[in-house]
Amino acid sequence: MKLSELHNGESAVIVKVSGHGGFRKRIMEMGFVRGRKVTSVIDAPLNDPIKYTIMGYDVLLRRSEAKLIEVLPEEEANAMLTAEDAQAPNFLACTDCDSCGLSCGAKRNKTTQRNIINIAFVGNPNSGKTSLFNALSGGHEHVGNYSGVTVDVKTGHFNYKGYHFNITDLPGTYSLSAYSPEELFVRRNLLESMPDVIVNVVVASNLERNLYLTTELIDLSQRVVVALNMYDELEATGAKLDYQNLGSMIGIPMVPTVAKTGKGLDKLLDTIIDMFEGDNKSARHVHINYGTILEPEISKLADILHKTEDFPQQFPARYWAIKMMEGDKEVATLLKSSKSYEKLEKQATISSEEVKKQLDIDAETAISDAKYGFISGALHETYTEGNVDANKKTRRLDKLIVNKWLGFPLFILVMWLMFSVTFWLGAYPQEWIAMGFDALGSYLNGIMPDGAWRSMIVDGIIGGVGAVAEFLPNIILLYMFISLMEDSGYMSRAAFLMDKMMHGMGLHGKSFIPMVMGFGCNVPAIMATRSIESKSSRLITILVVPFMSCSARLPVYLLLAGAFFPNYAATIMICLYLLGIIVAVLTAKLLRLTAFKQDETPFVMELPPYRWPTLRATLKHIWEKCYQYIKKIGTVILLASVIIWVLSYYPHTEISETELAQTETISETEATEIQYENSYLGMIGKFIAPVMSPMGFDWKISVAVLSSIPAKEIVVSTLGVLYGSEDDDLGEALQKSGDLNIASALALMVFMLLFFPCIATIGAVASETKKVKWAAFSVFYNTAVAWIVAYITYLIASLF
Ligand code: GDP
Ligand code: MG
Q1: Is 125 in the pocket of ligand 1 (CB under 6 A)?
Q2: Cα separations (Å) of 244 from 228, 651, 800?
Q3: Which ligand is nearest to the CA of 608?
Q4: Which has more confidence, 526 or 142?
Q5: What are the DSSP E strand ranges found in 230-272?
Q6: pLDDT band at 46, cuts 50/70/90?
Q7: DSSP character for 277?
């Protein structure tokens, strides 16, 4: 618990002091040291500061400061301390002993509470944070060779050498300014969760740019360990890095790692433990020197803050001062409650102007220049460049892959390959699964007595679930392609190729990645838009992602294209995917011309080096998707199948088999028809049929369309329930029924493509835009577009 949660008269024992080095030093000077007893004396609810007694003295602490001190109830702490007294003595959880020089009794016993280490991974996109996270926690988070894959905080844990590690994987960032939502997100996360040790994941083969973020962490004055990841790549170039020396120079220990193979992870963890225990030799607090013009101004601002000491104590005054100079808006709001804010703001303006006058560049640029200067100085002494050009392969490949003439044909070829393999190769196992379900259905049909139960199990569950389950192999193949494209680095090239086109529609190449991810599933794709810095570009991307044909729509195409266009199935599917893209482009253009006239921030599109995808990563991705699909089949689709069956079975028109045999006028299929038509499902279908009939849909197809709202695959299971027969597969049965012809089948595919994907996607739109308005817009707009385009498709196709 936090010291601030202590009630009046209660005592507790201090376990840990968080916050920046200077804060810890000051607080320890006041006697707030681990293992010491503290009593809350006055604690009125809104009383600030709070009065505590420690070592017989009364001390005042602000509530915000007390929040940074972790305590345990006395009995609990005592029990632990005595239990562990027997163990070897250990060190205080403080890294600043060298610089602070306090004889605070650094050597003391540990409590179990201390054995918990909270670490956070911070690093540039694509630096291998998630790979590290997975390697350490045995997690299965998504790893991809382009930026913007991790968009949420992922947490995991594991034990090592008697310590319990809680690890957090944060989104990739280049810095910690308020430039992009991700940067803000990471900074807020660090500010709020206060990890014990920050692990800065750095690409060893690209130090210059990666260490920029490290300089931001230096300013934060936190306990940091640098993981020099992809050290294998650095070594492959023949480069030499004296990382120990570099680490001592910047005051942060560095450990070479290869997250892909797990090399160096033990050393990394040992270093983290050392750091946590305050036992690391290279760790010390370093000030980056911002030069003779900036430094005095930074000091002026920091001094103002120090006068009132009422800034957030997680980070030092110097950090807040630097950010104020940079004109960081978020920091300005964070500091607004400070008594000295007015003065601070005034001084920040004066200081920035002063810097501009003297250096002829704005303060923000001056600060980042100084940071790069610091890095290049440190690297100058420790780094010797290799003679092997590591990027030669990448550059040579890029000459081909993003070539002006070859790029696009190659891109289309890759896409075509993806869809045709998904269709052709997938057809074999698909058939086996279908046969399995058919056999099961016939078997149960034979042994179960006629009636509602048999109908529910055979027609409802096996018919509905089986119809969807057979597409599992296709989904696996599609994801295999997406995964290979991501991990090899081709996905970023595709985005790069599309960049120009995306600019044409008022977006960026970066928007293309969420759009391609949308082919898998729209929900993570919408979340992946967080890597887009510009607000309006991001919003537009969110709104157009649902037009990207997700894998849930694939079974619908596979069924219909397979049945009605057996010879052109792959081509039809490519056309559908293209149509989705075209509608997305037009929508983006429309939004750019109307709602969002202006784009705010330009940004860089990165091209990561090509890498061989590992078998493990690919299999892992495929398994994840497979598992999700199976889970969906077992839950949503199963439930929907039963609901559709109930709606189609009741009210029940009883035509017994003997009756059937007697009346020669009604065949069995006609009897089923009559049953469906009179059922609730029939009523619903007929109710909406007038709206759907222009596209060539009768009431049965209308019902199928309606049933797609929870998830698109349900269309197939609904058709499975409605048209399933023992003799033919679903495609043939559909064709024989005559309810769909070539034109209306096309229209149905188009409608399914453009209609809003599912409830979950709409939820994602609402939560990512933080406005219900956009979710509602998405529903109405997509439905309207789906209707219009499907209608036009039907009209044109009917001509042939
Ligand atoms: P994140 O964006 O920081 O989470 O990075 P990821 O964990 O998604 O990894 C990005 C890419 O780098 C993936 O293709 C990984 O397979 C690859 N990768 C990660 N660590 C290493 C490493 O140590 N060496 C090499 N050669 N590749 C790595
Ligand atoms: Mg990641």
Answers
A1: yes
A2: 11, 79, 74
A3: 1
A4: 526
A5: 240-241, 254-256
A6: low
A7: T
Contact indicator for 502, 585 with CB cutoff of 8 Å = no
CB of 441 sitting under 6 A from ligand 1:
no
Judge whether 754 and 789 are in contact, CB under 8 Å.
Answer: yes
Question: How much distance in Å is there from the Cα of 487 to the middle of ligand 1?
Answer: 9
Q: Whole-angstrom Cα distance, residue 653 to residue 651?
A: 7
Q: Is 703 exposed, middle or buried (0-12, 13-18, 19+ CB in 10 A)?
A: buried
State the closest ligand 1 atom to the C-alpha of 142, by its place in the atom list counted from 1: 8
**How high is the pLDDT of residue 112?**
44
Burial class (CB within 10 angstroms; exposed 0-12, middle 13-18, buried 19+) of 59: middle
Report the distance separating Cα 729 and Cα 563, nearest Å: 10
Question: 325-365, pLDDT tens digit by residue?
Answer: 988 888 888 898 888 899 999 999 999 998 888 888 888 88
Residue 44: predicted pLDDT:
62
Cis peptide before 49 (omega within 30 of 0): yes
Ligand with an atom nearest the CA of residue 132: 1
The pTM of this model reads 0.64
Residue (of 168, 121, 173) closest to 147 by Cα position: 173
Q: Which ligand is nearest to the CA of 145?
A: 1
Q: Which of 126, 127, 130, 131 to mutate to test the pocket of ligand 1 (most atoms within 8 A of CB)?
A: 131
Residue 154 beta carbon below 6 angstroms from any ligand 1 atom: no
Residue 246 Cα to ligand 1 middle (Å) = 23
**Closest approach atom of ligand 1 to CA 258:** 23
The reply to whether ligand 1 has any atom less than 6 angstroms from the CB of 200 is no
What per-residue confidence (pLDDT) applies to 92? 37
Joined together, the tokens standing for residue 21 give 């080095």
Residue closest via CA to ligand 1's atom 11 equals 145
Average pLDDT of the segment spanning 627-634: 80
- Pocket probe for ligand 1: among 206, 260, 393, 620, the residue whose CB has the most ligand atoms within 8 Å is 260
Angle at 52 between CA 48 and CA 54, to 5 degrees: 155
Distance of CA 739 to the CA centre of its chain: 42
The model's pLDDT over 699-738, given as tens digits with 9 standing for 90+, comes to: 889 888 888 887 788 888 888 888 877 667 888 888 888 8
Q: Rounded to an integer, what distance in angstroms lies between the CA atom of residue 9 and that of residue 254?
A: 45
Ligand 1 within 6 A of CB of 685: no
